[in-house]
Amino acid sequence: MARTGTQMLLLVVALTATAAAISGASASSIPEEVPPYNPLEHDSLHAKHFDGGEHNAQFDHEAFLGPDESKKFDTLTPEESRRRLGLIVDRIDEDKDGLVTLPELKNWIAYTQRRYIEEDVGRLWRQHNPENNNTISWDSYRKTVYGFMDDLSSEEREQEENGISYKSLLKRDRNRWAAADKDLDDNLTREEFTAFLHPEEHPSMKAVVLQETFSDLDKDNDGKISVDEYIGDMYRSAGDEDVEPEWVANERESFSEHRDLDKDGYLNEEEVRQWIAPNDFDHSEAEAKHLLFEADADHDEKLTKEEVLDKYDVFVGSQATDFGEALARHDEF
Ligand SMILES: *[C@@H]1O[C@H](CO)[C@@H](O)[C@H](O)[C@H]1NC(C)=O
Ligand SMILES: *[C@@H]1O[C@H](CO)[C@@H](O)[C@H](O)[C@H]1NC(C)=O
Ligand SMILES: [Ca+2]
Asked: What is the pTM of this model?
């Protein structure tokens, strides 16, 4: 399956959001045994979304419900999950004509996204700023999130897993902090902190997001993205397979035909920018179109409640899905 612009953007969004969430989580777990941040987990996000080239339904669930709600749905029975989805469909249907249109779906997705960002920022603001000052200073943020590094040797700080080390994470946060700090006092207001945590929503953060994505991809730090770095980001051969899956071959072709615009065999920053964030890209609209396409059984470009409920697994999760995943994972234990 070819990776679309939508999926790539979702990936970037998920990555940045998760990095922030992890930074947040680490504040309370300054550790000896438990590292506050496992660099491997960071990278496994890539793998998760594109595992074996399959589209991961969790990304759609999170876009439709928001990450918090989506986790709740994962614990419900299929019946309860469908019942609640029915109630949500009534809310999405703004003009109450019994049909969900593309604009209605798009508004809903944009709303869940805003709601999630507000909750997430609120949670991390309280955590990093318990005295509720007007701003958070870099020094205080660094201490709570990366203070544990003071006790590490420089080898430990620089030790890489999949090209990511604590040192590089600190550097990434520092750069992003500076980009979010509009008035250049090195302290972030709540608004600036929002841009720091969710840069995907802020035009002024585009350059720093591009830079982070580029250096994630550029494993050998030579300033350009080879086709293997491009593929390696989505797919790691298990080692014992001689034949690449077809979708990997398709991605190679798409690299040279659509991504490598100047045909020099590598992606430069501009080519990566074109790929991850085309100028006119609207995340909510792209996701709404995708969901509509998946559920619109009679192809009239509107969804009845029945059409949505028939495809409830596309929109929301349930215990049944989780159970299936648990079974699939069983091998590893
Ligand atoms: C809040 O203000 C106090 C007093 O100035 C300061 O010690 C503390 O570090 C500040 N907290 C943050 C998160 O910047
Ligand atoms: C930034 O925050 C620190 C710590 O709270 C404070 O001492 C300093 O005065 C602040 N700087 C500005 C320019 O507000
Ligand atoms: Ca500031």
From this structure: 0.72
